[in-house]
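Hey L., structure's done. Input below.
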Amino acid sequence: LGASITSGSALDITGNTIGGLNGPAKYTDSQVTVAAALNPAGVSVSLVAPEQLAPCQTLTISTSSAGGSGRPLVYNWTTTTASLATYIESLSGESIAVPSNNLTVGTHNFSVRVTNWAGATGTAHVLVERVQNSVPTIIASSPTYRSIKRGSQVNIRVRLENTNCNASGTTTGSWEQAFSGSSISISALAFASSLTSSIVSIPSSTSQLLSLPANTLQMGLTYGFNFKGRLYSEGVLLGSTNATFVVSVDLEDVSAIITGPSTIGVVYGTSGSTYTFDGSLSSDPANTTKPLHYQWTLVNLASPSSTVVTSVGSGVSTLALSTTSITANQTYKLSLNVTGQTINGIQRTAGTSMLITTVSTGIPVVVMQTSITTPHNPQDALSLVSNLQNYGNDQVSFAWTCVSSNFDLTNTSNLLSPSTSPSLVIKPNALGIATQYTFKVTATHTSEGSGSASITFRTNSPPSLGTCSCSPSSGTALTTAYTLRCMDWTDVDGDTPLTYLFSYDAGSGSFVPMTTFQGLEYHTTVLPAPSSSSSSTTSSSSSSSPVLTLRAKIADARGAVVFFTFTTNVTSTSVDVDSTTTQTSSLIDQGDLSTASVLLGATVSALDTSQTSARPLSSSLSSSSSSSSPLSVSNLNDNDPIYVFIPLAQTDENTTTTCQYWDEATQQWLTDGLTFVREETNSIGVHGVLCATTHLTSFGSVRTGTDTRVGINTFGKDDIKAEAFSWENPVMVFCSILFASYVIIAIVALAYDIDKARNYDLQEKSVHFWRGVNQ
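Output:
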């Protein structure tokens, strides 16, 4: 009814006033009491701010909140700095800004309490140190703390910015390992006492990317890495800063896996057969090269106290079982115990077992030879492979069944192979997520009976339970710094670390990535104005700002992904090509290619839009000279025309096609100087129209009844002037900047390559390579 009812209030319902489908319903007077919510909507909030603030910098603290359920949130800011308390408490936005000259030298504590419509609150605080001297700013693209598997590669990326008041001086940075007694940044102080003393070799210590190969760090240990940035002026150190990153290596379990036949035949009156059981798929993630210790045990379930077979050995992963040691028509339990590396004084072991049924015939012996990484990613195809130990595949018939009864093998659209073949291949995305499956293959011999083998596995689930948002909720294209943040994402399988990729809708549902997959849960960047063909361009709120659709792609360590779509308001603005190009070049120099690509894409889009509104947009043919007068075009006559091929869809024989040009004076399509040659399919299989022209005016083709035109040249004969190639033309400026950027990148790459060649005595080969490229 549009009324708001608070918790604990009473709602009176008067009888005969609630309508039904056939008139007033006969309800008696009653009263409903609105109780407090059993699970009120919670609020989660985090803050983004620099750890250190230099002179001439402005402190910006932004929030990323979830729990508003689409309704406004209330922000209450506080600080422990008495001189700023009144000012900070008067702020109510989702981000705040404080000039550094308002902060005294020392550490300052800022807090925010966020309240939602239901009264639920969330709080967060951040510590910021105001330093005396100019220090460089370290911008991290990786989280301060991460927990990884030993088999995961470690990539920590930072960016160093010059924050000197007049932007003078030079910055340098280097990586070093942090230990318990090292200088630790504020955000990592909680981990200082747990950092290991085990030394790690750091490659390329002066690079802004710390990259450690998989299996470099030891399981169960916590490592610290410091990136130290320094600011120099004429060789004098002005200041330095430090950012600490902590990496904890998960203590993973040893895995024990047995492959072998679940049914074997024991034939009396023979010397016996030998069946092989394999435990080589067992593993210890702590050390993939150290041999495991295997212990095999076989007992008859009819008398479990007596052991039939015991085999113990280091590095021997197979058990050869002779049928002379067992009897027919019995059930045996085969157990495997695997011992791995001892870590922190803990002996790590794992065990598994399987049941073996013996029969008195020569049944087919089936072995499942598929190695499945558990959990299996359902978006990947799954191949289950069986093998016969005593028959050829042509001597038996195969039949696959799903013992767990949660997969339909009769639905062939889910399969890439028949369910009657030795191998079963299941299509990508046919299996469900977070589901356990058991598949069995049965091989039947016409006279000896049937043998079978089965395999049980579980599928992976993508990250879940999280949300993503953008702060601020509105701003200006290519100007406002937006922070895209994902929060509270977890992986029920423990497949960490999670990585994030952020993109925006460039139109028609086509999303353009702004980052690669990164460990950092947030990304700060400028955003382009929404495309007119994007999935949402009108805000549902009272604001008239267009809405830009954003998307985060969250992946776990095994590659399972989930998408989260969210929006923000972005107001369009005119594009200043000169300033945008300068800013783009600066970002490229700083290594911020993601923001640079956004600026380039938005600039191209803006230029494309402005030209489209002026006249029909198409490919261009042009010439230039040093004079400002129109250029003459010669040797275009009826005997020597230019032929132009225009791709068009194939038509039926009743359609007439003509070639026309656009006349600027009359604003019409005309046919003077144009001749339709023929419709044809060219050498690369593209169908279209061939036109002959004796001038360079904008022209195309027209089909009677369909009014289809394709422009070839946006310039009329009076438009081809030298001014088009002057620096006043934004297109000319933009193209020149692109070319200059290419030259700069090529020079930097050449310098880097020559430096590498000098170190490895390969300079002559490198110069030869670049000469080949430049030719």
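The longest strand covers residues 236-249. Residues 730-760 form the longest helix (31 residues).

-- N.
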